[in-house]
C-alpha cells in the first residue's frame, strides 16, 4: 500500500484532503484522497510514498496533526488473532525504534483507546521476537504505528521521528495551570511547541525580549509570554487578571488592539482577536511591513465553507502585503476550533 495517512480535527477531513491533493500535485506527486466526514483522518494514495512524504513535511502541513507513511491496510482482522496478519504484513520491513498503537480522535474511534493500550502490550513482545522492534526506544529508527479505525480494521504505518508529530495522536498533552487567566493560554503554548522547534524556541524566546499582545484580555497569551520572561505590552479595552499584572513584566494599555501601533520595534507580536480572517491577515502584514515586530503568532478565524480556499487566500495575502521576506508556518492546533494558528518571522 502506497500513500500517507494523516490525522486531523474531526470535521476537517475535506480541508486536509484538499490540502494534501493540492500540495502533492504541485510537488509532482499526483494522487487521490480517501476519507469519510467526521472520521478524523485522511488516507492519501500515491505511487511513491517515500517521495510524497519527503515532499510534504509534517511541520508545513496545516490541517494534519500527524503524518504517517502507509505500509498496509488490514480491513478484516479476526479479534481472536490480530497479531499474525500484522506480522505477515510487516515481513521484510526494517527494524522499528518504537511502537505506537493509536486510533483517530473521533467520536466513534475514541472507545478504541482501551483496545489500543492492551493490544500494544501484546504486540510489542511479538515484534521483538520477530526481530522487528528494538529492545529500547530508538529515535534514530522509524516508528511503527498501528492505527485502529474499528476493532477489526487497522492500518500499519511508519513515521520518521524527525518528520512527524512527537505526540500520540498528534496531540500535545498540556495542563491548564490554576493561575492561567483563560483556556486560550493553551493555544499559544501549543503554538510555540508545534510551530517552532527546540532550537527556535531557545533562540527566539529570550528573557528581556519585548512583545505586544493585541486583544489581550483577560491575559492568557500575555501570561504565556511572561512565563518566558518577555516584557509585554497588553493592548485591550477590557481588564487583565490581576496575577498577570503582578508579574511586573506587563504594561496594560486600554486601546483598540486592531488600531494600536507601537512607538518602537518589538521582538514579538501575538494576536487572538475575533475578526474576519482577511482583515486580520492584512493587519498582521502591516506589522511586518512597517517593521513593528520581527516574529508573530496570530489566529485566523475561518468561515464555515471553503476553509482551505480561505486559508490559502489569507496566507498569500499576508505574505504579499508584508512586502518583505517572511517565513510562515500554520497549523490547526488541537486547542484551536474553527481557526488556524500562524507563526511568521522575518527572514534574514
TrEMBL record:
- The EC class name is transferase
Catalytic activity from the UniProt record: cytidine(2498) in 23S rRNA + S-adenosyl-L-methionine = 2'-O-methylcytidine(2498) in 23S rRNA + S-adenosyl-L-homocysteine + H(+)
| Keywords in alphabetical order | Cytoplasm, Methyltransferase, rRNA processing, S-adenosyl-L-methionine, Transferase
Q: What residues does S-adenosyl-L-methionine bind to?
A: 184, 217-220, 236, 256, 272
Q: What is its EC number?
A: 2.1.1.186
Its predominant location is cytoplasm
Q: Which residues form the RlmM ferredoxin-like domain?
A: 1-68
Q: Mind telling me which Pfam families this protein's record contains?
A: FtsJ (PF01728), RlmM_FDX (PF18125), RLMM_N (PF21239)
Q: Which residues form the Ribosomal RNA large subunit methyltransferase M THUMP-like domain?
A: 81-157
The entry's active site is 301 (proton acceptor)
From the Swiss-Prot or TrEMBL record, state where the protein is found. Cytoplasm
- Domain (Ribosomal RNA methyltransferase FtsJ): residue spans on this chain: 182-274
InterPro entries recorded: RlmM_FDX, RlmM_THUMP-like, RNA_MeTrfase_FtsJ_dom, rRNA_MeTrfase_M, SAM-dependent_MTases_sf
Per the record, the similarity remark reads: Belongs to the class I-like SAM-binding methyltransferase superfamily. RNA methyltransferase RlmE family. RlmM subfamily.
**Which PANTHER family does the protein's record reference?**
RIBOSOMAL RNA LARGE SUBUNIT METHYLTRANSFERASE M (PTHR37524), RIBOSOMAL RNA METHYLTRANSFERASE FTSJ DOMAIN-CONTAINING PROTEIN (PTHR37524:SF2)
| NCBIfam families per the UniProt record, alphabetical | PRK11760.1
Function, in words = Catalyzes the 2'-O-methylation at nucleotide C2498 in 23S rRNA.
On assembly, the entry states: Monomer.
How is this protein named in the record? Ribosomal RNA large subunit methyltransferase M
Organism name: Pseudoxanthomonas gei
Report which gene this protein is encoded by. Answer: rlmM
Amino acid at each position: 500500500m502506497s500513500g500517507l495517512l494523516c490525522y486531523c480535527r474531526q470535521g476537517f477531513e475535506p480541508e486536509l484532503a484538499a490540502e494534501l491533493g493540492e500540495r502533492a500535485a504541485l510537488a509532482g506527486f499526483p494522487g487521490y484522497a480517501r476519507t469519510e466526514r467526521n472520521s478524523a483522518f485522511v488516507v492519501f494514495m500515491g505511487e511513491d510514498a517515500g517521495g510524497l512524504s519527503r515532499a510534504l513535511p509534517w511541520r508545513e502541513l496545516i490541517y494534519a496533526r500527524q503524518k504517517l507513511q502507509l505500509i498496509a491496510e488490514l480491513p478484516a482482522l479476526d479479534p481472536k488473532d490480530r497479531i499474525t496478519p500484522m506480522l505477515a504484513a510487516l515481513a521484510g520491513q526494517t527494524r522499528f525504534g518504537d511502537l505506537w498503537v493509536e486510533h483517530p480522535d473521533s467520536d466513534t474511534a475514541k472507545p478504541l483507546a482501551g483496545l489500543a493500550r492492551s493490544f500494544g502490550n501484546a504486540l510489542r513482545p511479538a515484534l521483538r521476537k520477530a526481530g522487528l522492534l528494538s529492545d529500547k526506544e530508538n529515535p534514530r529508527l522509524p516508528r511503527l504505528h498501528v492505527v485502529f479505525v474499528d476493532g477489526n480494521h487497522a492500518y500499519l504505518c511508519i513515521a520518521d521521528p524527525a518528520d512527524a508529530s512527537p505526540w500520540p495522536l498528534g496531540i500535545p498533552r498540556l495542563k491548564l495551570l490554576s493561575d492561567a487567566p483563560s483556556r486560550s493560554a493553551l493555544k499559544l503554548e501549543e503554538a510555540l511547541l508545534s510551530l517552532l522547534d527546540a532550537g527556535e524556541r531557545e533562540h527566539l524566546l529570550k528573557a528581556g525580549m519585548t512583545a505586544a499582545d493585541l486583544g489581550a484580555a483577560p491575559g492568557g497569551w500575555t501570561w504565556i509570554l511572561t512565563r518566558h520572561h518577555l516584557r509585554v505590552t497588553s493592548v485591550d479595552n477590557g481588564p487583565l487578571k490581576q496575577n498577570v499584572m503582578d508579574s511586573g513584566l506587563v504594561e496594560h494599555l486600554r486601546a483598540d488592539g486592531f488600531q494600536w501601533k507601537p512607538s518602537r520595534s518589538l521582538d514579538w507580536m501575538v494576536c487572538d482577536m475575533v475578526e474576519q480572517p482577511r482583515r486580520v491577515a492584512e493587519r498582521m502584514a502591516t506589522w511586518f511591513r512597517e517593521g513593528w515586530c520581527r516574529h508573530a503568532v496570530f489566529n485566523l478565524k475561518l468561515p464555515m465553507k471553503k476553509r482551505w480556499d480561505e486559508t490559502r487566500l489569507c496566507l498569500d495575502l499576508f505574505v504579499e502585503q508584508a512586502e518583505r521576506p517572511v517565513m510562515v508556518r500554520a497549523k490547526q492546533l488541537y486547542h484551536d476550533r474553527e481557526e488556524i494558528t500562524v507563526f511568521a518571522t522575518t527572514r534574514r
